[in-house]
């Protein structure tokens, strides 16, 4: 039996879990730390502390491998977690870079403050004279999505602001560098004034993670806070049986 731990700061990692479920059967244990979301504006020490607490909880389920379904945690805490727990951790930005490298031209990275400030994607994708990487920290999107606001005027007003440089320069490639953003992919498309390649690292990651399959999927989902929108968004992504539990960590 293969036990896979998947974790995120909240609802966003469900977009990753959904892709994994489609590709490989396993016992999946997902934890979304909605109570303390967003992580993007927190300092590195706090992000590492919270990530450590999440993994410490999931270790109770004899996890074989982990998928860090969060760009912020990935760029800040992967090395720490891999060293402490001596297990395989799949950090999502690596797969975003692999997918993005298939495209030519400039890129815009839409992410949290922590991800943007790390310049992770810029470091790997920007090539003088060939590709320029523009970085935009979308501070308000994760809190709105966690509240269940995934369409409408408030989302549109924020996206118009965050996508203004993309619309101005017609940047051909847009990287969704936060796993919350695929939840509002249609709103993002709506607020772009041109056709762009919208790159979702989760689709690439799900194709490349390597572990032994079980006969069928078993899915346990934990959240540190559950509100009226939690199950609605889970059901938007997970179309098979699952258990949902509130968990304090």
Automatic annotation (TrEMBL):
Top-rank taxon: Bacteria
InterPro entries given in the database record: Asp/Glu/hydantoin_racemase, Asp/Glu_race, Asp/Glu_racemase_AS_2, Glu_race
Catalytic residue positions: 70 (proton donor/acceptor), 178 (proton donor/acceptor)
Keyword Isomerase: yes
Pathway assigned in UniProt: Cell wall biogenesis; peptidoglycan biosynthesis
PROSITE patterns per record: ASP_GLU_RACEMASE_2
GO molecular function, one term: glutamate racemase activity
Catalysed reaction, written as an equation: L-glutamate = D-glutamate
Keyword terms, alphabetized: Cell shape, Cell wall biogenesis/degradation, Isomerase, Peptidoglycan synthesis
Main enzyme class: isomerase
Residues bound to substrate: 39-40, 71-72, 179-180
GO process terms (BP): cell wall organization; peptidoglycan biosynthetic process; regulation of cell shape
EC numbers for this chain: 5.1.1.3
Free-text function comment from the UniProt entry: Provides the (R)-glutamate required for cell wall biosynthesis.
Family of this protein: Belongs to the aspartate/glutamate racemases family.
Name by which UniProt lists this protein: Glutamate racemase
Source species: Anaerococcus nagyae
Lineage: Bacteria, Bacillati, Bacillota, Tissierellia, Tissierellales
């Amino acid at each position: 039996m293969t036990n896979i731990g998947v974790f995120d700061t909240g609802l966003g990692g469900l977009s990753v879990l959904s892709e994994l479920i489609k590709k490989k059967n396993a016992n999946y244990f997902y934890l979304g730390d909605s109570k303390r979301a967003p992580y993007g504006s927190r300092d590195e020490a706090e992000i590492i502390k919270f990530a450590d607490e999440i993994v410490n909880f999931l270790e109770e389920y004899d996890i074989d491998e982990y998928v860090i379904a969060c760009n912020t945690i990935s760029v800040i805490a992967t090395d720490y977690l891999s060293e402490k727990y001596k297990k395989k951790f799949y950090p999502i930005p690596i797969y975003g870079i692999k997918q993005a490298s298939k495209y030519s031209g400039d890129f815009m990275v839409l992410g949290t403050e922590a991800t943007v400030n790390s310049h992770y994607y810029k470091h790997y994708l920007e090539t003088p004279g060939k590709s320029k990487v523009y970085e935009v920290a979308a501070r308000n999107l994760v809190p709105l999505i966690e509240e269940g606001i995934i369409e409408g005027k408030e989302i549109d007003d924020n996206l118009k602001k965050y996508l203004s440089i993309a619309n101005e320069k017609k940047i051909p490639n847009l990287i969704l560098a936060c796993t919350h953003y695929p939840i509002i992919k249609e709103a993002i498309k709506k607020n772009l004034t041109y056709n762009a390649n919208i790159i979702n690292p989760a689709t690439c990651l799900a194709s490349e993670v390597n572990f032994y399959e079980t006969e069928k999927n078993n899915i346990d989902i934990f959240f540190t806070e559950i509100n009226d929108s939690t199950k609605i968004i889970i059901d938007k992504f997970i179309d098979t049986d699952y258990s949902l539990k509130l968990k304090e960590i």
